[in-house]
Amino acid sequence: MNFNTKYLPILMFSTLALGVVLGGMLNFPNAADYLVKNNSKSKLNKLIDFIDNEYVDEINTDSIVNLTVDNILAQLDPHSVYIPPSDQLAALESMKGNFVGIGVNFYMYKDSVAVIKPLENGPSAKAGIKAGDRILYADKTKLYGRKLPNDSLFSKLKGEVGSDIELTIYRKSEGKKLKLKIKRDVIPLKSVDVALMLSNKTGFIKINRFAETTYAEFMAGVSKLKKEGATSLIIDVRDNGGGYMEEAVAIADELLADKQLIVFTKNKNGNIAKTFATKKGSFEKGNIFILINENTASASEILAGAVQDNDRGTIVGRRSFGKGLVQREMDFADGSAVRLTIARYYTPAGRSIQKPYSKGKEAYFNESEARLGNGELYEKDSIKVSDTIKFKTKKGKIVYGGGGIVPDVFVPIEVEHGNEGTAYLMESGIVGNYVFEQLDKSRNNFKGLSFEKFKIKMNETDFYVNSFQKFVFGNGLDLNFGKSKLLVKRYLSAEFARQLYGENYYYEIVLKEDAMIKKVLNQQ
Questions:
Q1: pLDDT tens figures, 75-130
Q2: What span, in angstroms and rounded, lies between the C-alpha atoms of 75 and 359?
Q3: How far is CA 210 from CA 26, 218, 302, in A?
Q4: Which of 282, 361, 380, 457 could pair covalently with 410 via S-S, beta carbons 3.0-4.6 A apart?
């Protein structure tokens, strides 16, 4: 589907680098920070020198080196990748779990920087920035009426902790310009979206990636839910592409009894490293449910595999992505890095869940489209894993390797969403863009409205469903919502709630009709 470029997904300043990390579906140790030094001149080095010194035309040899590195890594596996300096900083911030900035969610709307929502209790909120404000100047740098690249925008708003920046804003609701001085601070990049109760005994935690702060965020969520009476826990890692292996292992440790195997790795020399649970588990009792789908990968699969193979809980959803490779990040002196696969990991039962990649990187990452075509997203019986060798869990249940984690309880995509094309659209950034523009036109219509009255208001009208249908058609997307109106209304209402009230309210609406959640709650 081709989106109009002015409706690119919302640029969340507080979650900028997430796509960089998830797109690679990484899985690597925290402490992997090696500086690559090679003082001997290789043939490749000499060739670059020859071109630099003798070639008839001026050539940017740095770009040649980057292409060479990419081509070399392309001969390996899909997860051994080169990260140029411009991308490395964003990736590091995402995985660190914070950065220094002003704390606003924004996107470029009609060539101006539009504030979607300031971070609660963040620097911008404290200074008086409001949703809908346009940022015209950062100090003396003009930001509107220009097609500034994202990295330029971010660099203007970032800085040192405690440093000041003066923003000139236009407040549409009041029709006036304001100058506000903001003191930059550390801005968290949440990896745990929400922790809330779905019933009087079932808690829900959504993990979007495994960053340095994920275990701490998870523990804070579990502590909160236990105080609220949770004796069962749903951990949602749908669309979670992975991240730091240690964070996933630490969470699994909280769920498993002492000395239960969580995961083991094997390198090229056959050396095996096993990781076992310790005595400290905070949720070793009570029911556990892990929600997965075709975009659940890497560290998320380690968590799901540990729970499944130890018969600790129930895996619900659809077959996961199938990444069983471990990367180590090695840094170059220019700020770039290479993530190199150094081992394979295995679930406690001894299975590798790595899917084949012999057909090339593009086919590998687009394999989910083949799943749609062969029917496995609709019927569990259509699931095909390349490795038919059977493994057994601790209690003797049969599980398979060679292509992801197969769920214990299957939930087909059409039951979950109604129409998969519409479903994927409703979870994309275009929905947030549409909702922002609607609020920008009529924010006063929601002013002072309680959440309960808001839900009634949204349920009583099809105005936004019909308006969004025109919006979608107007942007060249041939999707008809005729059979999916309830789905569209639910996600539109949820996005309105997120921008008006906060993240928890988004999930309160979306999860109410979620097929996987319903499946779990019906088993309670």
A1: 899 999 988 887 887 787 778 888 899 998 888 888 888 898 898 889 999 999 99
A2: 12
A3: 9, 10, 11
A4: 380
Q: Are residues 180 and 266 in the same domain?
A: no
pLDDT band (50, 70, 90) for residue 414: low
The answer for residues whose C-beta is within 8 angstroms of residue 513's C-beta and 6 or more apart is 486, 490
Nearest to 255 by CA among 210, 200, 195, 215: 215
Handedness of CA 179, 180, 182, 188 (dihedral sign): negative
State the Cα–Cα distance between residues 78 and 294, nearest whole angstrom.
17
CA 15-20-24 angle, 5° bins: 135
Torsion sign across C-alpha atoms 412, 207, 308, 355: positive
Q: Taking every pair of C-alpha atoms in the chain, what is the biggest distance, in angstroms?
A: 75
Here the CATH number for the domain that contains residue 327 is 3.90.226.10
Beta bridge pairs of residue 34: 330
Enumerate the β-bridge partners of residue 317: 292, 410
CA–CA dist 276, 270 (Å, integer): 19
Crossing angle of helices 485-500/503-510, nearest 10°? 160
> What's the pLDDT tens digit per position in 353-404?
999 888 888 888 988 888 888 888 888 888 877 556 789 999 999 998 888 9
Per the structure, the complete domain to which residue 498 belongs is given by 420-523
Cα distance between residue 345 and residue 28, in whole Å:
11
Structure tokens at 49: 């020198």
**9 pLDDT tier (thresholds 50, 70, 90):** very low
> What is the mean pLDDT of the segment spanning 485-510?
94
Task: Give the rounded percent of residues in the chain with a pLDDT score beyond 70.
Answer: 89
Rounded to the nearest 5 degrees, what angle is found at the Cα of 410, between the Cα atoms of 283 and 523?
50
Contact between 101 and 108 (Cβ < 8 Å): no
Answer whether residue 35 is part of any domain.
Answer: no
446 and 324 in a common domain: no
| Structure tokens that stand for 511 in this block | 């999860």
Tokens of 413: 């995509």
CA–CA separation, 65 and 150 (whole Å):
25
